[in-house]
């Protein structure tokens, strides 16, 4: 199964939820589509959605909620959906 | 139109040397936050030093060129690519009609400047092509680029293969020193508050933008006083005063903010120090979590530092002349 790294394209604060009262975008073990948002990164007072980038199962998140991430940093791992996933 | 915007990047704006002469009316200078890198990029492609270029913050745009041009990228370490193939930073190179220019992830710094031979030829507003986003003024319709925008170019005659010597490229890192002159309101700090300001390694927060750079760290102790007529009740409040570009205000005595080139022109917070002009470029290239120490200079030392900065700019001109 191909392992896909979800990378934050920008530096900023990492969030798992769209807002503090909502459920997380995705949790470990959940199936996601390539275009599904898995987290937000906030910089310059605006929020940037980070898509999964590949369809499959979320294996793990590598960053704690509200940690500051760098551009290019791997924030989550997706186990690809198999053929071409 | 010679450039089509396929992806805008995070916040890509047209910026030049700035819009001087209107700050007293509340319109800030705007322009490239890192003026040195703007200058270098323009010199590399044979433009006047103050020509309009694209300031690309954290995440670069993807652009399609419909005409050949000579381009250069200076500033943040955000490597350009033509049709997916890497190109050097701090060096001019050719793009052909139909080429796609985009950027890799940013590795150091915060803002890359893309200069194109001929300059980005948006209309001048109050003598400048710079974008002032808060005022929806200048640049392309007064806002950052959007997908589907097109950018006009002036006439240029750049040469590929020109590069900035290594020793004239700024060092970018996650630890930096920013030199300041204390005042005008540092008398509002106690000795301990002043010492805290100068002894702390401050951390840049992700809210930093073209208006202000806000830093995390300990609270600064202020001198007790009676609230002056016309000032707010908070100990950090002053009777409203003009804010210099580069001034450092500390609302509530916490989280100092360096005002940069899109700043508001005045207000009621104490400004305890001002960043020397050359080091505004250092601030401009600070990414979130950059650790910063403020170094106090007296006025003579600040003027000497400005003379040094001007000599460095002169050397850049000689190298690319």
Automatic annotation (TrEMBL), chain A:
Assigned GO CC terms: acetyl-CoA carboxylase complex
Task of the protein: This protein is a component of the acetyl coenzyme A carboxylase complex; first, biotin carboxylase catalyzes the carboxylation of the carrier protein and then the transcarboxylase transfers the carboxyl group to form malonyl-CoA.
CDD domains: biotinyl_domain (cd06850)
Superkingdom of this protein's organism: Bacteria
Pfam family, one: Biotin_lipoyl
Domain Lipoyl-binding as annotated: residue spans: 1-79
Protein name: Biotin carboxyl carrier protein of acetyl-CoA carboxylase
Pathway: Lipid metabolism; fatty acid biosynthesis
Keyword DNA-binding attached: no
Keywords: Biotin, Fatty acid biosynthesis, Fatty acid metabolism, Lipid biosynthesis, Lipid metabolism
An example Gene Ontology biological process: fatty acid biosynthetic process
From TrEMBL, chain B:
NADP in keyword set: no
Keywords: ATP-binding, Hydrolase, Nucleotide-binding, Transferase
Transmembrane segments: none
Keyword Hydrolase among record annotations: yes
Origin superkingdom: Bacteria
Pfam families: CT_A_B (PF02626)
Molecular-function annotations in GO: ATP binding; hydrolase activity; transferase activity
UniProt-listed InterPro entries: CT_A_B (IPR003778), Cyclophilin-like_dom_sf (IPR029000), PxpC (IPR052708)
All residue ranges annotated as the Carboxyltransferase domain in the record: 24-312
PANTHER family: 5-OXOPROLINASE SUBUNIT C (PTHR43309:SF3)
Identification of the protein by name: Biotin-dependent carboxyltransferase
Taxonomic path: Bacteria, Bacillati, Actinomycetota, Actinomycetes, Pseudonocardiales
């Amino acid at each position: 199964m191909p392992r896909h790294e979800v990378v934050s394209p920008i530096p900023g604060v990492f969030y798992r939820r769209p807002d503090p009262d909502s459920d997380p975008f995705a949790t470990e073990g959940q199936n996601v589509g390539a275009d599904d948002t898995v987290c937000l990164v906030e910089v310059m007072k605006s929020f940037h959605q980070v898509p999964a980038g590949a369809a499959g199962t979320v294996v793990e998140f590598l960053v704690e909620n509200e940690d500051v991430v760098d551009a290019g940093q791997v924030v989550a791992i997706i186990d690809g959906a198999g053929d071409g996933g | 139109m010679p450039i089509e915007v396929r992806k805008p990047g995070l916040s890509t704006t047209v910026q030049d040397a700035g819009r001087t002469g209107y700050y007293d009316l509340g319109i800030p200078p705007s322009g490239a936050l890192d003026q040195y890198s703007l200058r270098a990029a323009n010199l590399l492609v044979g433009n006047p030093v103050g020509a309009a270029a694209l300031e690309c913050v954290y995440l670069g745009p993807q652009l399609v060129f419909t005409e050949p041009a000579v381009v250069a990228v200076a500033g943040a370490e955000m490597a350009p690519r033509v049709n997916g193939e890497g190109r050097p930073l701090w060096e001019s190179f050719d793009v052909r009609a139909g080429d796609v220019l985009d950027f890799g992830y940013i590795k150091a710094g915060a803002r890359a400047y893309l200069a194109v031979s001929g300059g980005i030829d948006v209309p001048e507003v109050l003598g400048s092509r710079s974008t002032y986003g808060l005022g929806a003024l200048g640049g392309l319709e007064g806002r950052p680029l959007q997908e589907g925008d097109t950018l006009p170019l002036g006439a240029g005659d750049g040469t590929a293969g020109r590069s900035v010597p290594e020793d004239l490229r700024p060092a970018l890192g996650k630890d930096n020193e920013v030199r300041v002159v204390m005042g005008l309101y540092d008398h509002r700090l106690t000795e301990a508050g002043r010492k805290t300001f100068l002894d702390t390694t401050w951390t840049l927060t992700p809210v930093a933008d073209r208006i202000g750079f806000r830093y995390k760290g300990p609270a600064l102790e202020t001198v007790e006083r009676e609230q002056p007529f016309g000032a707010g009740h908070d100990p950090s409040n002053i009777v409203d005063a003009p804010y210099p570009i580069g001034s450092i205000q500390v609302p509530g005595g916490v989280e100092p903010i360096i005002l940069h080139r899109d700043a508001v022109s005045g207000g009621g917070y104490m400004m305890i120090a001002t960043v020397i002009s050359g080091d505004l470029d250092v601030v401009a290239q600070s990414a979130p979590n950059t650790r910063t120490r403020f170094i106090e200079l007296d006025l003579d030392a600040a003027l000497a530092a400005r003379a040094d900065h001007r000599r460095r700019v002169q050397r850049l001109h000689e190298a690319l002349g």
